[in-house]
Specification:
Rossmann fold, Arc Repressor Mutant, subunit A, 2 domains, single chain, six-stranded parallel sheet
Length: about 220
């Protein structure tokens, strides 16, 4: 039996995925989450075999959920669901710890193939992504030493994603229950680590890396 946690913020999509996963006798859906913090809470609660995770999640970006899941429940395999087919998003998802990346426009069979693949220790990219070559992705991932985002703390990554999404320091402080001064400190630290000097440079950097802003 493969235990699965489903993290998707759109209820109608989650209901469809619930029905799909429930139709497979070998799958056991142990929980659902509608936002990033809830997903992490349930990861710790259930330690599922597989986390099916939307890239765009409110409260905490799916990429950050993936990173923290790898720390909190290393045995959990992560299958990303996304509408984004460009290479930058796929690469960032794999860097965050995903074992599979499934496009939302794919067939239901693709999701089941992805789940079965990651449980066999394999990586899975839904077509047409696999046609671009897993070898190229693996080579890019091995260059993590050149990725300055690995220097950021989890909180700095959260602030980075929100700044990239156009949120002000005051808005970020409200979302994260932090003081504005603390947000300003995190923002200053992350820009120093990434060698960025303006909002324009930060947004350009995020786009180039395929780092999705938090909704």
């Amino acid at each position: 039996m493969i235990t699965i946690l489903l993290a998707e913020d759109h209820l109608i999509v989650r209901q469809g995925l619930r029905a799909l996963l429930g139709s497979v006798p070998e799958y056991c859906l142990v929980g659902e989450a509608g936002d990033g913090p809830e997903a992490l809470q349930k990861v710790e609660q259930h330690c599922p075999d597989v986390l099916v995770l939307d890239v765009m999640m409110p409260g905490l970006n799916g990429l950050e959920v993936a990173r923290q899941t790898r720390q909190r429940s290393p045995r959990t395999q992560i299958v990303f669901l996304s509408m984004h087919a460009n290479e930058a998003y796929v690469l960032e998802a794999l860097r965050a710890g995903a074992a599979a990346y499934v496009l939302k426009q794919s067939s239901s069979d693709d999701l089941m193939k992805a789940i079965n693949a990651v449980m066999n220790g394999e990586r899975y990219l839904s077509p047409p992504l696999d046609e671009q070559g897993l070898t190229r992705y693996a080579r890019l991932i091995e260059s993590d030493a050149d990725d300055l985002t690995v220097l950021l703390t989890p909180r700095e990554r959260e602030v980075f994603q929100m700044v990239a999404g156009g949120l002000t320091n005051a808005a970020i402080a409200g979302r994260l229950s932090l003081s504005r001064r603390t947000v300003e400190m995190h923002r200053s630290n992350l820009m120093r680590k990434l060698h960025l000097h303006s909002q324009t440079e930060l947004v350009r950097f995020a786009i180039q890396r395929g780092i999705a802003p938090i909704d």
